[in-house]
Specification:
This protein is an alpha/beta fold and 372 residues long. It folds into 2 domains: 248 residues, Type I PLP-dependent aspartate aminotransferase-like (Major domain) (Aspartate Aminotransferase, domain 2), CATH 3.40.640; 120 residues, Alpha-Beta Complex (Aspartate Aminotransferase, domain 1), CATH 3.90.1150.10. It has 12 helices and 12 strands. The protein has a 7-stranded mixed β-sheet with strand order 1-9-8-5-4-2-3, with helices on both faces. Strands 10-11-12 form a 3-stranded antiparallel β-sheet. Strands 6-7 form a two-stranded antiparallel ribbon. α1 packs antiparallel against α8, α2 runs parallel beside α8 and α8 packs across α12. The two termini are 29 Å apart.
Length: 372
């Protein structure tokens, strides 16, 4: 997920202008900053890009998730359903919000299993937190149907899927909140950073107040003399992050376009071998092609395939402790998630980059397959 690959003069210019004005804080100092608010501009542009009414810049994807969960004001200790295969930050955010994460199995989409969601819903369940893993959508039609049926809130973890769509609509805009990450290894990066989007003004206000200690951000009263609106914390985005985000957002369509071209080259080669099957997509046209995930018939052959890749200078993606076992350890569940483990053990992942030599890698992969 390489927004870092396309750093250039655009980012340098935006950051330089912030430094010249000398204000890195996103609020106040109007005269010194000459009325220029980079985070606010980034929020506006990102809301337009996603088709959301509101966007709130925060300082990480983890902060985005925590802010969204706190913004919902769910009853403490109620259950939030989320996949067992996700980065550990998803689980941490639920726990830090005083809620109980309940892990669900995944299926061959590498996203949350709809069958297991239904199995896990009970009277203590308050929300579903689907994760659009590796740039590809969950089955949002089914998830929103369950949300309506059982009156559950939905918060989308779109941290790995900025720019992806489902049936023509941007991911992150189906639930009450959508959460995005802009860390250094994401498709759009501000070094660290994140965004929360919503269409609900009341929910936006809750998130806005929470992410800045309860400040209401009034324009008629100076900061520091206004009344606190709620308990909160400091998850503010800086003007440097906002400046980089503006430059990166302009490049996002071309990044995704290049991803798709490079992925198609590799997938075409792999499609010629009947011992390889591919990850299921709920909307293949809408995914952002940051990864190519495919399956070998069993764990032993998958490991052997990955070893062959390493021997030929291709690093396979890592589906390991931080995305699976750490989650199970964190929630202290007795479930073993054997179905998910067996899927992941058979999975091979290639990260798609903007500047990769896709033709050369495809030739190498073809050679490995022929000798496999």
């Amino acid at each position: 997920m390489p927004g870092r690959e396309v750093f250039g003069e655009e980012e340098i210019q935006q950051v330089t202008e912030v430094l010249k004005r000398g204000v890195l804080f996103r609020y106040g100092f109007d005269a010194q900053r000459q009325g220029v608010f980079m985070v606010s501009q980034f929020e506006k542009k990102f809301a337009e890009y996603t088709g959301s009414r509101y966007a709130l810049g925060v300082n990480s994807g983890t902060a985005a998730l925590k802010t969204a969960l706190e913004g919902l004001n769910l009853p403490k200790k109620t259950k939030v359903l989320t996949p067992c295969f996700t980065f550990v930050a998803t689980i941490e955010s639920i726990e830090e919000a005083g809620l109980k994460p309940v892990l669900c199995e995944i299926d061959e989409s590498l996203n949350i299993s709809m069958n297991d969601i239904e199995n896990q819903i009970d009277r203590k369940t308050s929300a579903i937190l689907p994760v659009h893993m590796m740039g590809s959508a969950c089955d949002m039609s089914e998830i929103m149907g369950l949300s309506d049926q059982f009156n559950l809130s939905v918060v989308e973890d779109t941290c790995q899927a900025t720019g992806a769509t489902y049936k023509g609509r941007r991911l992150g805009t189906f639930g009450k909140y959508g959460c995005f990450s802009f860390d250094y290894v994401k498709v759009l990066t501000t070094g660290e950073g994140g965004m929360v989007v919503t269409d609900d003004e009341k929910l936006y206000r809750q998130a806005d107040w929470y992410h800045d200690h309860g400040h209401p951000h009034r324009t008629d009263v100076g900061r520091g003399v206004e009344e606190r609106m709620r308990k909160g914390t400091n998850f503010r985005m800086s003007e440097i992050q906002g400046a980089i985000g503006l430059a990166q957002l302009e490049k996002l369509p071309s990044i995704i376009e290049r991803h798709k071209k490079n992925k198609a080259i590799l997938k075409q080669v792999l499609s010629g071998y009947d011992f390889i099957t591919f990850r299921k997509h709920h909307d293949e046209n809408g995914e952002i092609a940051t990864f190519l995930a495919f399956f070998l018939p069993d764990a032993r052959r998958a490991e052997r395939f990955k070893e062959k890749m390493k021997e030929n200078g291709i690093n396979p993606g890592i589906l390991n402790y931080w995305h699976f076992f750490a989650n199970i350890q964190s929630v202290r569940t007795r479930r073993k998630f054997e179905k998910s483990r067996k899927i992941l053990e058979r999975t091979v992942v290639i990260e798609i980059l903007v500047k990769m030599d896709a033709e050369k890698i495809a030739d190498t992969i073809d050679k490995i397959c022929k000798e496999f």
